[in-house]
## 1
Amino acid sequence: MNPAEVATSLVIERTLATSPAYRKVDDSLYVIKQGSAYVMVAVVPWGKDKACVRCTAQLVKGIKLDQRLAIQLLELNSFLRFGAFAWDPQQETVLFVHSILGGTTLDSDELLATLRDVALIADEYDDKLMAKYGGQRMLDLLEEAALETLMEKHPRDFDLGH
């Protein structure tokens, strides 16, 4: 990690240390949960001596991008303070993303404002998009995966007949 990445990670960790919604995944990746949404916070190198903070929330997976959805997302983007809705065609997933400059100029207030807005928008729009276009929220997908893993590891624990 370059010095700007290290400085960015330290600001993130100091700022979020007391939040019960925050988890550190590794030295440059963090997760924040807000309602039914998860925001991935990644420290990304930018050149040899800079870094940025990229916040990405996967909102709804398994929907088809059609003209109506694309236009709605573009129109929503025009009203946002910052950040933007995006489309991942490989995963068929609607995302909400925003990046800010990291390094020694990153301050806690700016970071908290960014994370708060991304998390609140993600939590609001995952439900709205799923209700209108189908698919599954990330929370639902994670819960399904956790249950499948649990069932594979301990299938007899769930046998109600014995």
Note: The chain is about 45% helix and 30% strand.
## 2
Amino acid sequence: MARRKQRWRCKSGEQPTEFDKRIMYLENKGALVPTRELVLNDEQIEGIRRSGVVNTGVLDAVEKAIRPGMNTQEIDDICMEYCRQHGAIPACLNYGGDKDTLPFPKSVCTSINEVVCHGIPKKEDVLEEGDIINVDFTTILDGYYADASRMFIVGGRTTPEKEQLVRVTKECLEIGMEAAKPWGWVNDIGRAIEKHAKKYHYGVVRDLCGHGVGLHFHDDPEVAHFAQRGNGMLLVPGMVFTIEPMINMGTYKVFIDEGDPYGWEVISEDELPSAQWEHTLLMTEHGVEILTY
């Protein structure tokens, strides 16, 4: 039997540190550990932190402007202008594209009511009082990525059912952050989130997940928001990743909108409302630090 390729390697010519030894010990016990590239240095973390400041500014600008009667193209315009003024690039613009999808055509995802994620801004999508909308933005600043999303209740008031969904989804993010521990495991996050969502009989979307971020838009580890078998990847100080639970009022199942010519918009299967909150997080020796406040 071929020996499994080792993920964690010491730097060439250097003796392993206690940090290295701890990871290698767990890897030798069969744990899935990060590669060295996923543990970032101080310079890289500061770059992501600066990108996070701009990312937060983008969402703050949206929060100040969002109102009934506004269309989602106006939200895209706000994000583009804020990036331009602060020397940043929107990561979503022209992202992706394969045999099933075209590149994402706008700078931000605007997902209203039953749209789970990847909603495309457009002039014909006019916000009404009581709508709930997720605005999801990823910033590139000097080559570093920061990714966050917020929920907004248009006009400030909605139904009690939608208001509860928005609140509980934010609680799911907070509970997921509490479950993310240094020298803990990725799958602890999903178990904690799903346990809370199930109290309200909500569905936790399984087809999409959180992810490593910082040097790239998407990286390891994949962060599922529902309970999975096993531990998942080891979390160690220096890793940067998102937690971004997508919580549906009904079933966890989703589909791609056939009316979307780009092939991006994800909708809850029963077309009941969905909500999402997201932060970019740095794992430290004491727990996670939010980089997208």
Note: The chain has five helices and 15 strands.
## 3
Amino acid sequence: MRKIKLYEADDKMIDLITDNYSMLQGLNAFGIRLGFGDKTVDEVCSEQNVDCYTFLAVVNYIINGYAPKETDQRISARTILDYLRASHRYFLDFQLPSIREKLNSSLPHDDGRSSLILHLYDEYAHDIRKHMRYEEKTFFPYVEALLRGEHITKYNVAIFSRHHSDTTGKFQELKSIIIKYLPHDSLANNRLTATLYDIYNNEEWLSNHANVEDHIFVPVIRLLEKSVKEEGISTKLSDMIKSVDAGETISDREKEIIVCLVQGMSNKEIAAQLFISVNTVTTHRRNIARKLQIHSVAGLTIYAIANNLIDKRWLTGQ
């Protein structure tokens, strides 16, 4: 029976597991190994390189439905991502094949309905695999890019949320059929009942997994998206400010072209004057505009006077 309480960093890890044995798989997904003795949650997480705050956020949500605030910036996106990936591996590589093996061994092989039940299970398993592989091929790499500081415009967490569906209902029909079709042989009936119990636990696991994604992971990634976007804007502004510092970035050739431009010369005339091609003049003008963020001749004239490229008396013809 579960003990309803919010677990904290100074609680013993063994007490958490004793109260909630279903969290054993969660330990594995977080990469926490057994054999931790009577150490606290904080001590175990610290020794095994797991973010304690994030671990407790997931534990308290799964056990008691206590979701952290969507603005909570202390939850580690990397820790949640690694947890979800490990959970996928457990479910796809172990849980699904294990239940199928138990189901196959508990059904009478001389009854045509048994093969239909297995077929239903395989269909549901295929849908769940497809669901999880979409996350692994699309959403998880997107999160990895955000963690590297890359801002991707063609995909975001809102798109993921719109397509993220709960997969727990996929086993409802299967459970109903098994309950209505129990063999009369007592041994087989016991095996099938045990397998049915596993399927119910499997459904609960899927529900918890989906809820962690929706109510913890998605809000964390929204915050990460916002942070990366703001950092990108800040970087662009910084680059723009640096580019305006023409004393360091404008070359001697570009200064010559600026002087020619403020004198009213065309690209062709500048090319002839400096013995370069028209295309080269065009390239230099583009670089000047990018570096100075000045696109008008009037603006270039003011810049030229301020940087002593031309004498201000030139404006009055003196």
Note: The CA atoms of residues 87 and 154 lie 27 Å apart.
